From TrEMBL:
Region (Disordered): 32-52
Compositional bias per record (Polar residues), positions renumbered to this chain: 32-41
Organism the protein comes from: Rhizodiscina lignyota
Pfam family, one: PBP
Transmembrane segments: none
One GO MF term: phospholipid binding
UniProt protein name: PEBP-like protein
GO biological process, one term: regulation of Ras protein signal transduction
């Protein structure tokens, strides 16, 4: 098991005992507001969308781009997670779209025709495993970051294989891409 990145440890600590995270994860059938909410495998199969607290985006230029990642911390078993973390998706060029909803969240949408760097890999923990934690983190995207640059820097080939996703080096990913502090995050469980 790769050591857990400080960004993930800090996020999980900050979300402990919180009713609402500053990032919401949306699936067609459900929205994860409370950190650690449970989602079924079928409900988590479609690619999720994200929304972020407008207090985070309020003083940012409208052109600010964001990067997001999703990882599984508990593969294959929470008690023996030697394959973790597993990368479940990377998206660049997200922008705050439209006005905040009544609860103060604004959608993060990919720029037109912007495919993910790594497409969503739906949760599929083994049947005998306890529920896995699927963590989402969002950063301000550094200037000059492109899908091609990220794929080249991380040596990701199309399609991104399971082998490239296993034992994901989250700390190395953040360092290589020059990502700063995590702006927002959330997680759900699925088993």
């Amino acid at each position: 098991m790769a050591p857990q990145a400080a960004s993930v440890t800090n996020l999980l600590s900050s979300l402990a005992n919180q009713e609402h995270a500053p990032l919401r994860i949306h699936f067609p059938e459900t929205t994860i507001q409370k950190p650690g909410s449970s989602v079924t495998k079928p409900a988590s199969k479609p690619s999720p969308t994200l929304s972020i607290s407008s207090t985070i985006t309020a003083n940012k230029p409208a052109t600010q781009k964001y990067a997001a990642i999703a990882i599984d911390l508990d593969a294959p078993f929470r008690s023996f997670a030697f394959l973790s973390p597993i990368l479940h998706g990377i998206q660049l060029n997200l922008v705050a779209a439209g006005s905040a909803d009544p609860e103060g969240f604004v959608k993060l949408e990919a720029e037109e025709n912007q495919a993910p760097v790594v497409p969503w890999g739906p949760p599929n923990p083994p049947p005998i495993s306890s529920a896995h934690r699927y963590v989402f983190l969002v950063w301000e995207q550094p200037d000059g970051m492109t899908v091609e640059k990220v794929k080249g820097t991380l040596n990701l080939k199309e399609p991104v294989s399971l082998g490239a996703r296993i034992r994901w080096d989250e700390a190395g990913f953040e360092k290589k891409l020059g990502l700063g502090e995590v702006l927002a995050g959330n997680f759900f469980t699925c088993g």
